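Retro notes, structure queue

What went well: the backlog is down to a handful. What didn't: a couple of records were mislabeled last round, so from now on we paste the full input next to the output in the thread. Example, using Ribonuclease Y from Candidatus Jorgensenbacteria bacterium GW2011_GWF2_41_8:
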Amino acid sequence: MKRLTNLENIANSFSGVERSYAISAGREIRIFVHPEKIDDLRAFQLAKEMARKIESELKYPGEIKVNVIRETRAVEYAK
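Corresponding output:
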C-alpha cells in the first residue's frame, strides 16, 4: 500500500497533474493532466520524466507502465 501511495505522490508532484491512480498492484499508473495546461507534446515529455523519477526514487520488481491522459471533451446539445 505504501508503494502505491509513493507512486501517486511522485506523479502528483508534477505541475499540471489533476489526479493520478496506481492500479494493477502498482504495475501501472494513470495520470490525468489539465488539458489547458499540458499540450500533447508536453504529455509525452511528462510521461518520460515521471518514468525516470520513479526509476530513481522507488525500488520495485519488473516494470511500471506510466500513462499520461490528456482528455478534451467537446459537448454540444441539439434542441
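Agreed that this is the format going forward. Reviewer comment attached to the example: DSSP finds two helices and three strands in the chain.
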